[in-house]
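The passage that follows is intended for readers who have already worked through the single-chain material. We present the inputs for a multi-component assembly, then the predicted structure in tokenized form, and finally a short commentary. You are encouraged to pause after the input and sketch how you expect the pieces to fit together before reading on.
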Amino acid sequence: VTSSAPTIAAGRRPFDIKLKLADRIGDPLLRLLAALAALVGVGVLLWIIWTVIDKARPAISQFGLGFITSTAWNPVKGDFGALNFIYGTIVSSIGALLVAGPLSVAIALYLTELAPRAIRRPVGMLIELLAAIPSVILGLWGIIVLGPFLGNHIEPALHDVLGWIPLFSGTTLPYGMLPAIVILTIMTVPIVSSISREIFQTTPSDLKEGAYALGATRWEMVRMVILPYGRAGVVGAIILGLGRALGEAIAVSQVIGNANHDHLSWFAPAGTLAAQIASQYQGAVTPLQTSALLYLALILLVISLIVNVIARLIVRRFTIQGAAH
Amino acid sequence: MAIAVVSAIALAACGSSSSGGSGGGGSSGGSKTLVGAGSTLVAPLMSTWQPAYNKATGVTVTYGAIGSGGGIDQITARTVDFGASDAPLTSSQATACKGCIQIPWALAATVVAYHVQGVPNHLKLTGPVVADIYLGKIKTWNDPAIKALNPGVNLPSTTIQPVYRTDGSGDTYAFTQYLSKVSPEWQSKVGFSTQVSFPTGLGGAHNSGVGGLLASTNGAIAYIAIAYVVENNFDAALIQNAAGKYPVPGVPSISAAAATVKSVPADNAISIVDPPASAPDAYPISTFTYVISPLKNPKADTLKPFINWAITTGQADGPKLEFAPLPSVVVSAGKTSVNKITS
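Having made your guess, compare it with the prediction:
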């Protein structure tokens, strides 16, 4: 604010000397403020990581690495483990992205290449608006509409056809892994599809025209030009969506049934790291339980960081390959 | 990442401003306020107390129904003026709270509710049968054990879905304490606390979350605070008491259970689950709910009259919300305890 005031008065002669002074101070000041802002960002990140590690320490010294392979979660006996929640987190997120990935690529292709021009913008905007729905409202919709629909119609049908696979066996329910996967799919589609669309839009038109000139059909052009060109970006977008799905707590805890059971079935109630932290942190019975919840948070943090690093590696590899062509 | 960092800063800012607000708001002059948090069971009663007490004295009481466990956490951290819990403090919680006193200030019940299409209200169950359902040993509604208790009722083969609370809850405490008393297997496998490891079923947060799961799941059984059961017209099971009777959960049967209290222990922790057979009309899962305050409380001058009002005048608001009036022996013990709080 202080540096902008003299600029307004720049045309007036008597202020010229002051203006130069302001310029001299302005540049270093700008650099200082910007550096400070960056430092705050890095500082908060380190602060959060340190807090999680520090508060998880009692549980780490009590349970060690065995915490990761234990399925216990017993506040009465003070015995805690993370395995069921790690399993629930990974299955719900990867399940969601297996559906959301192809769906998003199809949406992005439709909106960049296939749809009539007049509807591309409005449809694209509506799909992006899906990302604006607060997760707690999506979770409520999951409770009221999606869960009962899946539990009463889709799950019995899956059970009849695929019941011999453990994933689709057991009692059907409005709450469980499957509703969580579908909710996470709905949450990640707008992210993945909007990024993919922007990537597909950057495909140079001379490449596309070249493919057509060589007699390619539209499908061949998509397969040989657009998809290879956008591959790195789409993979990055999917992993970005995965990061979103791994950490979602509210909507998942509303529909997943919050159970610590080692059922393979997608129809059974389950739990995820984020949902468990959200539903139990307030009112944990003992300090050890609070610490065990922070240990879950640490595991979630590590998984998220690993996913992020993998995403960067994949994107870099594809980018280098793309550049070599 | 950038968004995450910005929101983290925003959260940190919120946190510091709100804690500063509640800390500083107490000692400053002007209108008197009390801030409390905890039990969701007592929340409906609290919401009738708040306007009534404000009208009578001008004191504004703010209450957050965050669950009993949360209430104990908040008063232990001294971020509120009083906590509220349906479960008495455990010895480790009492140590952590550093000189806290608990006073019973309301009396209610946890009800076993169910949602099974085609089954009428007031199905009869016993404690051991409920324990076996929650242990996963009784799996369907037409199980012989349930049939035997309900001759003439047409029970479907629907799978039973036990529903439980995931947050720290006094309802969980009363319910699991009752099951521990009537089922040795429950006692050894699960035990009792505000949070336990349920062997089967699905979990929801707070009475509202459990009510939502119950309403939308055919075949579900749940334990919920009595006020929520009445408000939502859930079907309520009749639980057999020690005398072999099936009293309807309500103010008369809760009062009958409370009448078995002849004296109050020094720490005010009173358990009336599974009352003796000498009380034939007693509902077996009745529970006292407590207000918790540090013995040295900066807001003592405002809090003490409020607690005294709640355990006397305030009791009249109870019955229409399914809270039974406190027995006189508990009221007089409460008044003695209130006097121990100083500023």
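Commentary: DSSP finds twelve helices and two strands in chain A. Residues 1-6 of chain A have pLDDT under 50 and may be disordered. How closely did your sketch match?
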